[in-house]
Amino acid sequence: MTSGAGLTQEEAFARIRLLRSPNVGPVTYRQLIARFATASAALEALPELAGRSGKAYRIAPERRVHDEIAAVRKTGARYLFHDSQDYPGLLGETESAPPILTVRGDPAIASRPCVAIVGARNASAGAVKLARDFAHGLAEAGHVVVSGLARGIDGAAHEGALGAGESGSTIGVIASGIDIAYPPEHARLQDRIAEEGLLIAEQPPGVEPLARHFPARNRIIAGLASGTLVVEAAPRSGSLITARLAGEMGREVMAVPGSPLDARAHGCNQLIRDGAVLVQSPDDVIELLSGFDGTPRSVVREAGPTLDQTAAQPVSEEPAATGIADLLTTAPIAVDELIRQSGASASAVQLALLELEIAGRLVRHAAGRVSLG
C-alpha cells in the first residue's frame, strides 16, 4: 500500500483517513502534520479543532479507508505519499501539492525533464497535428510530456509522445479516481500511459470527474513540469487556468500563436500579450527549458504578497478563529495581509485559519489567498 521509507502501515492508513476527512485539503493536511507530527495525532485533534468554531465533526470512517485501499490494489495502483523518495520533486515544491497520489506506472519518469502540453478539447485539426508534432519532437529530445488525457490537444500530446519510440514518455493526470477512464474513448490510451509511462490521480478510486476536480487536476499538471505550453485555447478555458497556475508557481509559460479570426486561438494570443513566450517549434521549447533554473522568461503570474509588510507589526495574543473570520469576506485576500491587519503572529493566524477550514467556513485560493466559504 505504501510508498515511503520508514512509514508504518498504521501511519499510512491514518494519513489516508486524515486526507479523506471533511474539509481537510492539501494545505490543511500539511499544517496538521507539521503541528501534530503524525497523522494519527492529527486525527485525534480534529474534533476539538473543529469544535472551537462551533461545529460537530466526524473524521472519515475506517471502513471507507479500508474499501479505498482494496480498490487501489484491485486496479494495480499504489499510493505515493508527499515525503516518499519517488514523489515528483517539482510538484512537491508547490504550495498546493497533493499529500497523497495514487499512481500506475513508473514514478521515476517524473524526475526527468517534464513539459506540459495543454489546449482545447474541441481543437482544430491543425492544432491537433501541431500538438502531436510538438510532443513527438520534445519526447525525442528527452522531455516527458505531461497532459490531462482530455479530448483534443491533450490526447494528441500523449499520442505524440508515445509515438517517439523508446525515448518517448508521457504522464497522464486525470480528474477522476485511478480506476475510471474519462473520456471513455481514451480508456485504451489511459491504460497504455499506465503501462509505458505514468498515470496519476488525486481523487480516490470510484470518484467520477466532476467539474470542480479539473482545476485541481490542472495544478498537478502545471506543478509536474518546468514549463507549460498551450497550443490552442479559447478565453476562460481550463488550459488558461493551467498556464496561469504554472506562472504562479514560477514555471515557464509558452503559447503557440493563432489566427485572430479563430476564437479557439484567442486564449493563446491573450497569453502572449500577458507575457507568455511565443513558440513556433519544439526547438523553441527545448531552447527555453534547457537549463531552466527557476527564473522564467514569461511573466504570466500575479504579484505575490510581500512578507516585509509584517516585519514591524506588533505581535498580539493568539486570536480566536472568530476574530480572524471577522476580517474575512467572500473576496480572496492574502494570508500575509490578514497577519498584517490582525497584528497577530503568523502561526496564530494560520491556526485560526486551520480551525475555520476544518469547520467548513474557509476556502483556500491560489497564491496563498483565503476567503470565507
Could you characterize the architecture of this molecule?
It comes from Novosphingobium malaysiense. Belongs to the DprA/Smf family. Residues 79-289 form the Smf/DprA SLOG domain. This is DNA processing protein DprA. With 373 residues, the protein is of the alpha/beta class. It folds into 3 domains: 9-74, no CATH class; 105-289, 3-Layer(aba) Sandwich (Rossmann fold); 308-372, Arc Repressor Mutant, subunit A. It has helices spanning 9-19, 26-36, 39-51, 62-74, 89-92, 125-140, 153-162, 187-196, 213-224, 238-248, 266-273, 282-289, 321-327, 335-342, 346-358; strands at residues 78-81, 100-105, 114-118, 144-147, 170-177, 198-203, 227-230, 252-255, 277-278, 333-334, 362-365, 369-372. It has a 9-stranded mixed sheet, with helices on both faces. Strand 8 (252-255), helix 11 and strand 9 form a beta-alpha-beta unit. The longest helix is centred in the middle third of the chain and has 16 residues, at 125-140. The two termini are 34 Å apart. The model is unreliable at 303-319 (pLDDT under 50).
